[in-house]
Amino acid sequence: MSQPSKDLFKDIVSHCKEYGFVFPSSEIYDGLGAVYDYGPNGVLLKNNIKEYWWKSMVQMHDNIVGIDAAIFMHPKTWKVSGHIDAFSDPLIDNKDSKKRYRADVLIEDHMQKIEDKIDKEVEKAFKKFGDSFDEALYRQTNPRVLENRAKIDQIQEAFRIALENSDLDGLKKIIEDCEIVCPISGSRNWTDVRQFNLMFKTQMGSVADDSDAIYLRPETAQGIFVNFLNVVNTSRQRIPFGIAQIGKAFRNEIVARQFIFRMREFEQMELQFFVRPGEEVKWYEYWKETRMKWHQKLGIDASKYKFHDHLKLAHYAKAALDIEFDFPFGFKELEGVHSRGDFDLKQHQEHSGKKIQYFDPELNQSYIPNVVETSVGLDRMFLAVMSSALQEEIIDNDPNNTRTVMKIHPVLAPVKVAVLPLMKKDGLPEKAHEIFKLLKLEFQAQYDEKDAIGKRYRRQDAIGTPYCITVDHQSLEDQTVTIRERDSMSQERIHIDQVLEIVRARVSWNTILA
Question: Does domain 42-71+198-407 have CATH number 3.30.930.10?
Protein backbone atom coordinates (compact mmCIF):
# COMPACT_ATOMS: atom_id res chain seq x y z
CA MET A 1 0.00 0.00 0.00
CA SER A 2 1.47 3.35 -1.07
CA GLN A 3 1.62 6.18 1.44
CA PRO A 4 1.71 9.86 0.38
CA SER A 5 4.66 11.64 1.95
CA LYS A 6 3.93 14.43 4.43
CA ASP A 7 6.76 16.43 2.94
CA LEU A 8 7.45 14.97 -0.50
CA PHE A 9 9.67 17.83 -1.63
CA LYS A 10 12.14 17.41 1.25
CA ASP A 11 12.05 13.65 0.73
CA ILE A 12 12.96 14.07 -2.95
CA VAL A 13 15.91 16.35 -2.20
CA SER A 14 17.16 13.95 0.49
CA HIS A 15 16.62 10.86 -1.69
CA CYS A 16 18.48 12.46 -4.61
CA LYS A 17 21.51 13.06 -2.41
CA GLU A 18 21.46 9.70 -0.62
CA TYR A 19 21.08 7.56 -3.74
CA GLY A 20 23.37 9.41 -6.11
CA PHE A 21 20.84 11.28 -8.25
CA VAL A 22 21.65 14.95 -7.58
CA PHE A 23 24.36 16.66 -5.49
CA PRO A 24 24.82 20.34 -4.60
CA SER A 25 27.58 21.66 -6.87
CA SER A 26 30.98 22.31 -5.22
CA GLU A 27 29.56 21.02 -1.96
CA ILE A 28 32.97 20.75 -0.24
CA TYR A 29 33.14 24.55 -0.57
CA ASP A 30 29.60 24.97 0.80
CA GLY A 31 28.03 24.79 -2.65
CA LEU A 32 27.06 27.34 -5.28
CA GLY A 33 23.55 28.73 -5.21
CA ALA A 34 21.08 27.17 -7.66
CA VAL A 35 23.73 25.00 -9.33
CA TYR A 36 23.62 21.19 -9.05
CA ASP A 37 25.57 18.15 -10.23
CA TYR A 38 23.98 14.89 -11.38
CA GLY A 39 25.37 11.79 -9.68
CA PRO A 40 25.81 8.20 -10.97
CA ASN A 41 22.10 7.36 -10.99
CA GLY A 42 21.02 10.89 -11.85
CA VAL A 43 23.05 11.07 -15.04
CA LEU A 44 21.59 7.73 -16.18
CA LEU A 45 18.02 8.92 -15.59
CA LYS A 46 18.78 12.25 -17.24
CA ASN A 47 20.25 10.56 -20.31
CA ASN A 48 17.23 8.25 -20.56
CA ILE A 49 14.85 11.24 -20.51
CA LYS A 50 16.93 12.87 -23.26
CA GLU A 51 16.86 9.68 -25.29
CA TYR A 52 13.08 9.39 -24.92
CA TRP A 53 12.68 12.97 -26.16
CA TRP A 54 15.18 12.57 -29.01
CA LYS A 55 13.73 9.29 -30.23
CA SER A 56 10.18 10.65 -30.05
CA MET A 57 10.97 13.92 -31.80
CA VAL A 58 13.72 13.05 -34.29
CA GLN A 59 13.79 9.29 -34.85
CA MET A 60 10.00 8.93 -35.02
CA HIS A 61 9.45 11.97 -37.27
CA ASP A 62 10.65 11.89 -40.88
CA ASN A 63 10.51 15.68 -41.06
CA ILE A 64 12.56 16.59 -37.97
CA VAL A 65 16.36 16.72 -37.85
CA GLY A 66 18.74 17.58 -35.03
CA ILE A 67 21.64 19.94 -34.44
CA ASP A 68 23.99 20.78 -31.58
CA ALA A 69 24.80 24.50 -31.73
CA ALA A 70 27.60 26.17 -29.77
CA ILE A 71 26.87 27.84 -26.43
CA PHE A 72 28.83 30.96 -27.42
CA MET A 73 27.28 32.97 -30.25
CA HIS A 74 28.06 36.28 -31.90
CA PRO A 75 26.86 38.96 -29.45
CA LYS A 76 24.80 40.60 -32.20
CA THR A 77 22.55 37.52 -32.06
CA TRP A 78 21.21 38.56 -28.66
CA LYS A 79 20.70 42.20 -29.63
CA VAL A 80 18.76 41.16 -32.74
CA SER A 81 16.65 38.58 -30.87
CA GLY A 82 15.63 41.16 -28.27
CA HIS A 83 17.30 39.49 -25.33
CA ILE A 84 19.69 42.33 -24.48
CA ASP A 85 16.82 44.84 -24.29
CA ALA A 86 13.90 42.70 -23.15
CA PHE A 87 15.11 39.53 -21.41
CA SER A 88 14.48 40.54 -17.82
CA ASP A 89 12.45 39.78 -14.70
CA PRO A 90 10.52 42.24 -12.49
CA LEU A 91 12.28 42.24 -9.11
CA ILE A 92 11.31 43.70 -5.75
CA ASP A 93 13.27 43.91 -2.47
CA ASN A 94 12.00 43.70 1.06
CA LYS A 95 13.68 46.47 3.04
CA ASP A 96 13.60 44.56 6.34
CA SER A 97 14.88 41.14 5.27
CA LYS A 98 17.10 42.56 2.48
CA LYS A 99 15.83 39.67 0.33
CA ARG A 100 15.00 40.04 -3.35
CA TYR A 101 12.00 38.43 -5.02
CA ARG A 102 10.38 38.21 -8.43
CA ALA A 103 7.28 40.36 -8.22
CA ASP A 104 5.31 38.11 -10.58
CA VAL A 105 6.17 35.01 -8.54
CA LEU A 106 5.02 36.68 -5.29
CA ILE A 107 1.66 37.43 -6.93
CA GLU A 108 1.34 33.93 -8.44
CA ASP A 109 2.16 32.33 -5.06
CA HIS A 110 -0.47 34.51 -3.38
CA MET A 111 -3.12 33.39 -5.88
CA GLN A 112 -2.06 29.78 -5.31
CA LYS A 113 -2.60 30.21 -1.55
CA ILE A 114 -6.17 31.33 -2.22
CA GLU A 115 -6.59 28.37 -4.57
CA ASP A 116 -5.36 26.11 -1.75
CA LYS A 117 -8.05 27.56 0.54
CA ILE A 118 -10.67 26.57 -2.02
CA ASP A 119 -9.26 23.04 -2.22
CA LYS A 120 -9.35 22.75 1.58
CA GLU A 121 -13.02 23.81 1.62
CA VAL A 122 -13.77 21.16 -1.01
CA GLU A 123 -11.80 18.54 0.93
CA LYS A 124 -13.70 19.30 4.14
CA ALA A 125 -17.02 19.03 2.32
CA PHE A 126 -16.02 15.72 0.78
CA LYS A 127 -15.19 14.29 4.21
CA LYS A 128 -18.54 15.52 5.51
CA PHE A 129 -20.79 14.25 2.68
CA GLY A 130 -18.82 11.25 1.42
CA ASP A 131 -19.73 9.51 -1.82
CA SER A 132 -22.85 11.65 -2.32
CA PHE A 133 -20.69 14.79 -2.59
CA ASP A 134 -21.07 16.71 -5.87
CA GLU A 135 -17.77 18.59 -6.18
CA ALA A 136 -18.65 20.50 -9.34
CA LEU A 137 -21.92 21.79 -7.83
CA TYR A 138 -20.18 22.69 -4.57
CA ARG A 139 -17.54 24.76 -6.40
CA GLN A 140 -20.30 26.59 -8.28
CA THR A 141 -22.52 27.39 -5.28
CA ASN A 142 -20.59 27.50 -2.00
CA PRO A 143 -20.30 31.15 -0.82
CA ARG A 144 -16.74 30.82 0.57
CA VAL A 145 -15.52 29.10 -2.60
CA LEU A 146 -17.18 31.75 -4.79
CA GLU A 147 -15.73 34.56 -2.66
CA ASN A 148 -12.19 33.19 -2.98
CA ARG A 149 -12.67 32.50 -6.70
CA ALA A 150 -13.73 36.14 -7.18
CA LYS A 151 -10.57 37.28 -5.37
CA ILE A 152 -8.40 35.20 -7.71
CA ASP A 153 -10.20 36.51 -10.80
CA GLN A 154 -9.80 40.11 -9.66
CA ILE A 155 -6.08 39.70 -8.95
CA GLN A 156 -5.51 37.81 -12.19
CA GLU A 157 -7.15 40.52 -14.29
CA ALA A 158 -5.06 43.28 -12.66
CA PHE A 159 -1.98 41.07 -13.05
CA ARG A 160 -2.70 40.50 -16.75
CA ILE A 161 -3.10 44.22 -17.43
CA ALA A 162 0.12 45.09 -15.56
CA LEU A 163 2.10 42.45 -17.47
CA GLU A 164 0.69 43.44 -20.85
CA ASN A 165 1.61 47.09 -20.24
CA SER A 166 4.95 46.32 -18.54
CA ASP A 167 3.55 48.36 -15.67
CA LEU A 168 6.00 47.92 -12.79
CA ASP A 169 4.05 50.32 -10.55
CA GLY A 170 0.96 48.24 -11.26
CA LEU A 171 2.73 45.09 -10.08
CA LYS A 172 3.75 46.80 -6.84
CA LYS A 173 0.18 48.02 -6.30
CA ILE A 174 -1.11 44.42 -6.58
CA ILE A 175 1.46 43.32 -3.99
CA GLU A 176 0.38 46.15 -1.67
CA ASP A 177 -3.37 45.68 -2.23
CA CYS A 178 -3.08 41.92 -1.56
CA GLU A 179 -1.01 42.68 1.56
CA ILE A 180 1.62 40.18 0.43
CA VAL A 181 4.33 39.82 3.07
CA CYS A 182 7.99 38.83 2.80
CA PRO A 183 8.31 35.09 3.59
CA ILE A 184 11.40 35.87 5.71
CA SER A 185 10.61 39.06 7.64
CA GLY A 186 6.82 38.91 7.50
CA SER A 187 6.76 42.62 6.67
CA ARG A 188 5.20 44.56 3.78
CA ASN A 189 8.04 47.07 3.55
CA TRP A 190 8.77 46.78 -0.20
CA THR A 191 10.93 48.75 -2.63
CA ASP A 192 9.69 49.71 -6.08
CA VAL A 193 9.66 46.98 -8.76
CA ARG A 194 12.44 47.17 -11.37
CA GLN A 195 13.66 45.07 -14.27
CA PHE A 196 16.81 42.91 -14.09
CA ASN A 197 18.45 41.39 -17.19
CA LEU A 198 19.04 37.66 -16.82
CA MET A 199 21.94 37.07 -19.21
CA PHE A 200 25.45 36.14 -18.06
CA LYS A 201 28.00 38.45 -19.66
CA THR A 202 31.69 37.61 -20.04
CA GLN A 203 34.69 38.49 -22.23
CA MET A 204 36.22 36.67 -25.19
CA GLY A 205 39.83 37.49 -26.02
CA SER A 206 43.30 37.07 -24.58
CA VAL A 207 43.65 40.62 -23.21
CA ALA A 208 40.88 42.01 -21.06
CA ASP A 209 41.15 45.58 -22.40
CA ASP A 210 41.03 44.36 -25.99
CA SER A 211 38.35 41.67 -25.60
CA ASP A 212 34.80 41.52 -26.88
CA ALA A 213 31.71 41.23 -24.69
CA ILE A 214 29.98 37.90 -25.16
CA TYR A 215 27.07 36.12 -23.48
CA LEU A 216 26.28 32.64 -22.25
CA ARG A 217 23.16 31.74 -24.21
CA PRO A 218 19.93 32.17 -22.22
CA GLU A 219 18.08 29.80 -24.60
CA THR A 220 18.98 27.25 -27.26
CA ALA A 221 16.49 28.47 -29.89
CA GLN A 222 18.73 31.11 -31.49
CA GLY A 223 21.33 28.46 -32.40
CA ILE A 224 18.60 26.83 -34.49
CA PHE A 225 17.50 30.06 -36.19
CA VAL A 226 20.97 31.17 -37.26
CA ASN A 227 21.52 27.69 -38.72
CA PHE A 228 18.21 27.61 -40.62
CA LEU A 229 19.79 28.00 -44.07
CA ASN A 230 22.55 25.49 -43.31
CA VAL A 231 19.98 22.87 -42.31
CA VAL A 232 17.70 23.59 -45.30
CA ASN A 233 20.64 23.30 -47.72
CA THR A 234 22.04 20.07 -46.27
CA SER A 235 19.06 18.08 -45.00
CA ARG A 236 16.77 18.36 -48.04
CA GLN A 237 13.78 18.87 -45.74
CA ARG A 238 10.61 20.46 -47.04
CA ILE A 239 8.14 22.66 -45.18
CA PRO A 240 6.73 21.72 -42.73
CA PHE A 241 9.85 20.47 -40.95
CA GLY A 242 11.54 20.85 -37.60
CA ILE A 243 14.98 21.30 -36.09
CA ALA A 244 15.52 19.73 -32.65
CA GLN A 245 18.25 20.40 -30.11
CA ILE A 246 19.18 19.43 -26.57
CA GLY A 247 21.59 21.80 -24.87
CA LYS A 248 22.66 23.90 -21.91
CA ALA A 249 21.34 27.40 -21.28
CA PHE A 250 22.22 29.92 -18.58
CA ARG A 251 20.19 32.53 -16.74
CA ASN A 252 21.30 34.73 -13.88
CA GLU A 253 18.23 33.98 -11.81
CA ILE A 254 18.10 36.21 -8.75
CA VAL A 255 15.31 34.16 -7.25
CA ALA A 256 16.55 30.63 -7.90
CA ARG A 257 14.86 28.08 -5.68
CA GLN A 258 12.94 24.83 -5.38
CA PHE A 259 15.93 22.55 -5.94
CA ILE A 260 16.51 21.81 -9.64
CA PHE A 261 13.25 23.47 -10.71
CA ARG A 262 14.86 26.88 -11.24
CA MET A 263 18.60 26.88 -11.78
CA ARG A 264 21.23 29.19 -13.24
CA GLU A 265 22.66 26.44 -15.45
CA PHE A 266 20.06 24.14 -16.95
CA GLU A 267 19.30 22.04 -20.00
CA GLN A 268 16.56 22.42 -22.60
CA MET A 269 15.02 19.99 -25.07
CA GLU A 270 13.71 22.20 -27.81
CA LEU A 271 12.02 21.93 -31.21
CA GLN A 272 11.57 24.76 -33.71
CA PHE A 273 9.00 23.64 -36.28
CA PHE A 274 8.88 25.68 -39.49
CA VAL A 275 5.52 26.03 -41.27
CA ARG A 276 3.91 27.99 -44.10
CA PRO A 277 2.55 31.42 -43.12
CA GLY A 278 -1.10 31.00 -42.27
CA GLU A 279 -0.70 27.41 -41.03
CA GLU A 280 0.82 28.24 -37.64
CA VAL A 281 -2.51 27.90 -35.75
CA LYS A 282 -3.03 24.36 -37.05
CA TRP A 283 0.49 23.30 -36.07
CA TYR A 284 0.31 25.09 -32.72
CA GLU A 285 -2.73 22.96 -31.85
CA TYR A 286 -1.00 19.83 -33.19
CA TRP A 287 2.12 20.26 -31.07
CA LYS A 288 0.10 21.25 -28.02
CA GLU A 289 -1.74 17.92 -28.08
CA THR A 290 1.28 15.87 -29.23
CA ARG A 291 3.48 17.11 -26.42
CA MET A 292 0.82 16.42 -23.78
CA LYS A 293 0.51 12.85 -25.06
CA TRP A 294 4.31 12.49 -24.86
CA HIS A 295 4.22 13.28 -21.15
CA GLN A 296 1.26 11.06 -20.40
CA LYS A 297 2.87 8.03 -22.07
CA LEU A 298 5.11 7.77 -19.02
CA GLY A 299 2.16 6.39 -17.08
CA ILE A 300 1.97 9.37 -14.70
CA ASP A 301 -1.56 10.25 -13.56
CA ALA A 302 -3.13 12.54 -16.18
CA SER A 303 -4.46 14.82 -13.41
CA LYS A 304 -0.85 15.85 -12.75
CA TYR A 305 -0.83 17.83 -16.02
CA LYS A 306 -2.78 20.83 -17.26
CA PHE A 307 -2.56 23.54 -19.91
CA HIS A 308 -2.07 27.15 -18.86
CA ASP A 309 -2.37 29.98 -21.40
CA HIS A 310 0.08 32.85 -20.95
CA LEU A 311 -1.32 36.08 -19.53
CA LYS A 312 1.47 38.04 -21.23
CA LEU A 313 3.02 37.02 -24.53
CA ALA A 314 6.73 37.37 -25.23
CA HIS A 315 7.72 40.09 -27.69
CA TYR A 316 7.94 37.51 -30.50
CA ALA A 317 4.90 35.33 -29.74
CA LYS A 318 1.49 35.08 -31.43
CA ALA A 319 0.22 32.48 -28.95
CA ALA A 320 1.75 30.69 -25.98
CA LEU A 321 0.85 28.18 -23.31
CA ASP A 322 2.54 26.06 -20.69
CA ILE A 323 2.08 22.40 -19.94
CA GLU A 324 2.10 22.59 -16.16
CA PHE A 325 2.91 19.73 -13.80
CA ASP A 326 1.71 19.28 -10.24
CA PHE A 327 5.07 19.41 -8.46
CA PRO A 328 5.20 18.99 -4.66
CA PHE A 329 5.02 22.81 -4.46
CA GLY A 330 2.04 23.17 -6.83
CA PHE A 331 1.35 23.40 -10.55
CA LYS A 332 4.31 24.97 -12.34
CA GLU A 333 5.59 25.20 -15.91
CA LEU A 334 7.13 22.03 -17.28
CA GLU A 335 7.05 22.75 -21.01
CA GLY A 336 6.22 25.73 -23.19
CA VAL A 337 4.49 25.66 -26.58
CA HIS A 338 4.76 28.92 -28.52
CA SER A 339 3.71 30.26 -31.89
CA ARG A 340 6.71 32.51 -32.59
CA GLY A 341 5.55 33.84 -35.96
CA ASP A 342 8.38 34.85 -38.30
CA PHE A 343 9.99 37.26 -35.83
CA ASP A 344 13.32 35.50 -35.30
CA LEU A 345 14.16 34.63 -38.91
CA LYS A 346 12.99 38.07 -40.09
CA GLN A 347 15.18 39.81 -37.49
CA HIS A 348 18.26 37.77 -38.41
CA GLN A 349 17.64 38.38 -42.13
CA GLU A 350 17.34 42.14 -41.59
CA HIS A 351 20.42 42.54 -39.42
CA SER A 352 22.76 39.95 -40.98
CA GLY A 353 22.22 41.02 -44.57
CA LYS A 354 21.64 37.37 -45.53
CA LYS A 355 18.45 36.27 -47.28
CA ILE A 356 16.97 33.78 -44.84
CA GLN A 357 14.03 32.41 -46.79
CA TYR A 358 12.63 29.10 -47.91
CA PHE A 359 11.71 28.36 -51.53
CA ASP A 360 8.49 26.36 -51.58
CA PRO A 361 8.42 24.25 -54.79
CA GLU A 362 4.70 23.52 -54.38
CA LEU A 363 3.79 27.21 -54.23
CA ASN A 364 6.68 28.25 -56.49
CA GLN A 365 7.56 31.13 -54.18
CA SER A 366 9.98 32.10 -51.42
CA TYR A 367 8.95 33.21 -47.95
CA ILE A 368 10.09 33.43 -44.34
CA PRO A 369 8.44 30.50 -42.52
CA ASN A 370 6.47 30.84 -39.33
CA VAL A 371 7.70 28.90 -36.31
CA VAL A 372 5.97 26.79 -33.67
CA GLU A 373 8.24 26.02 -30.72
CA THR A 374 8.08 23.35 -28.04
CA SER A 375 10.60 23.66 -25.22
CA VAL A 376 10.77 21.40 -22.18
CA GLY A 377 13.20 21.86 -19.32
CA LEU A 378 15.19 18.65 -18.90
CA ASP A 379 15.91 19.35 -15.24
CA ARG A 380 12.25 20.07 -14.56
CA MET A 381 11.33 16.89 -16.40
CA PHE A 382 13.78 15.03 -14.16
CA LEU A 383 12.12 16.54 -11.07
CA ALA A 384 8.63 15.68 -12.38
CA VAL A 385 9.65 12.05 -12.90
CA MET A 386 11.17 11.85 -9.42
CA SER A 387 8.10 13.52 -7.87
CA SER A 388 5.69 11.01 -9.38
CA ALA A 389 7.89 7.95 -8.87
CA LEU A 390 9.09 8.24 -5.26
CA GLN A 391 6.78 6.36 -2.89
CA GLU A 392 6.79 4.96 0.62
CA GLU A 393 5.01 1.61 0.81
CA ILE A 394 3.67 -0.37 3.74
CA ILE A 395 4.28 -4.10 3.27
CA ASP A 396 1.63 -6.67 4.32
CA ASN A 397 -0.37 -3.99 6.17
CA ASP A 398 2.41 -3.79 8.77
CA PRO A 399 3.32 -0.13 9.55
CA ASN A 400 6.70 -1.31 10.83
CA ASN A 401 7.51 -2.98 7.52
CA THR A 402 8.00 -0.33 4.83
CA ARG A 403 10.03 0.21 1.71
CA THR A 404 11.04 3.28 -0.30
CA VAL A 405 10.50 2.59 -3.97
CA MET A 406 10.92 4.56 -7.19
CA LYS A 407 8.04 3.44 -9.42
CA ILE A 408 9.58 5.01 -12.49
CA HIS A 409 8.69 3.87 -16.00
CA PRO A 410 11.05 0.93 -16.72
CA VAL A 411 12.31 2.56 -19.92
CA LEU A 412 13.59 5.55 -17.92
CA ALA A 413 14.97 3.53 -14.98
CA PRO A 414 18.68 4.30 -14.41
CA VAL A 415 19.45 0.60 -13.88
CA LYS A 416 17.34 -1.91 -15.76
CA VAL A 417 18.36 -5.11 -13.98
CA ALA A 418 20.44 -6.12 -10.96
CA VAL A 419 22.16 -9.50 -10.53
CA LEU A 420 22.42 -10.72 -6.93
CA PRO A 421 24.15 -13.92 -5.78
CA LEU A 422 22.37 -15.22 -2.68
CA MET A 423 25.73 -15.79 -0.95
CA LYS A 424 29.37 -14.82 -1.57
CA LYS A 425 30.56 -18.42 -1.77
CA ASP A 426 29.93 -21.89 -3.21
CA GLY A 427 30.36 -20.71 -6.81
CA LEU A 428 27.31 -18.41 -6.70
CA PRO A 429 29.29 -15.18 -7.44
CA GLU A 430 30.93 -16.83 -10.43
CA LYS A 431 27.56 -17.90 -11.87
CA ALA A 432 26.07 -14.48 -11.15
CA HIS A 433 28.97 -12.78 -12.95
CA GLU A 434 28.30 -14.89 -16.04
CA ILE A 435 24.72 -13.63 -16.16
CA PHE A 436 25.77 -10.07 -15.36
CA LYS A 437 28.28 -9.98 -18.23
CA LEU A 438 25.60 -11.19 -20.61
CA LEU A 439 23.04 -8.61 -19.46
CA LYS A 440 25.33 -5.58 -19.44
CA LEU A 441 26.01 -6.00 -23.15
CA GLU A 442 22.43 -4.83 -23.71
CA PHE A 443 21.25 -3.08 -20.53
CA GLN A 444 22.52 -0.80 -17.80
CA ALA A 445 22.96 -3.50 -15.14
CA GLN A 446 24.35 -3.74 -11.61
CA TYR A 447 26.06 -6.54 -9.71
CA ASP A 448 25.63 -6.51 -5.94
CA GLU A 449 26.75 -9.12 -3.40
CA LYS A 450 26.98 -7.01 -0.22
CA ASP A 451 24.48 -7.42 2.68
CA ALA A 452 21.47 -9.67 3.08
CA ILE A 453 19.32 -10.25 0.00
CA GLY A 454 16.43 -8.22 1.49
CA LYS A 455 18.62 -5.14 1.92
CA ARG A 456 19.85 -5.48 -1.63
CA TYR A 457 16.27 -5.63 -2.91
CA ARG A 458 15.51 -2.43 -0.99
CA ARG A 459 18.54 -0.66 -2.48
CA GLN A 460 17.38 -1.52 -5.99
CA ASP A 461 13.80 -0.47 -5.17
CA ALA A 462 15.11 2.91 -4.03
CA ILE A 463 16.77 3.64 -7.39
CA GLY A 464 13.88 2.20 -9.42
CA THR A 465 15.43 -0.97 -10.85
CA PRO A 466 12.57 -2.91 -12.54
CA TYR A 467 14.12 -6.40 -12.17
CA CYS A 468 16.40 -8.26 -9.79
CA ILE A 469 17.90 -11.63 -10.71
CA THR A 470 18.85 -13.80 -7.73
CA VAL A 471 21.33 -16.66 -8.18
CA ASP A 472 21.16 -19.44 -5.56
CA HIS A 473 22.34 -23.03 -5.15
CA GLN A 474 19.51 -24.35 -7.29
CA SER A 475 20.84 -22.18 -10.13
CA LEU A 476 23.97 -24.33 -10.23
CA GLU A 477 21.88 -27.49 -10.45
CA ASP A 478 19.21 -26.66 -13.05
CA GLN A 479 20.25 -23.31 -14.61
CA THR A 480 17.26 -21.44 -13.16
CA VAL A 481 17.19 -18.14 -11.27
CA THR A 482 14.62 -16.12 -9.36
CA ILE A 483 13.42 -12.95 -11.11
CA ARG A 484 11.82 -10.31 -8.88
CA GLU A 485 9.61 -7.54 -10.27
CA ARG A 486 9.91 -4.15 -8.59
CA ASP A 487 6.32 -2.88 -8.38
CA SER A 488 4.54 -6.07 -7.34
CA MET A 489 7.57 -7.62 -5.59
CA SER A 490 6.44 -10.92 -7.12
CA GLN A 491 9.12 -13.56 -7.67
CA GLU A 492 9.22 -16.24 -10.34
CA ARG A 493 11.57 -19.11 -11.13
CA ILE A 494 12.78 -18.94 -14.73
CA HIS A 495 15.51 -20.51 -16.84
CA ILE A 496 18.63 -18.41 -17.33
CA ASP A 497 17.96 -18.41 -21.09
CA GLN A 498 14.71 -16.49 -20.48
CA VAL A 499 16.26 -13.61 -18.54
CA LEU A 500 17.27 -11.52 -21.56
CA GLU A 501 13.92 -11.93 -23.27
CA ILE A 502 11.87 -10.98 -20.20
CA VAL A 503 13.91 -7.91 -19.32
CA ARG A 504 14.06 -6.79 -22.96
CA ALA A 505 10.28 -6.95 -23.30
CA ARG A 506 9.74 -4.71 -20.27
CA VAL A 507 12.38 -2.02 -20.87
CA SER A 508 12.31 -1.81 -24.67
CA TRP A 509 11.78 1.62 -26.23
CA ASN A 510 9.02 -0.03 -28.28
CA THR A 511 6.80 -0.05 -25.19
CA ILE A 512 6.71 3.74 -25.13
CA LEU A 513 7.34 4.82 -28.72
CA ALA A 514 4.92 2.53 -30.54
Answer: yes
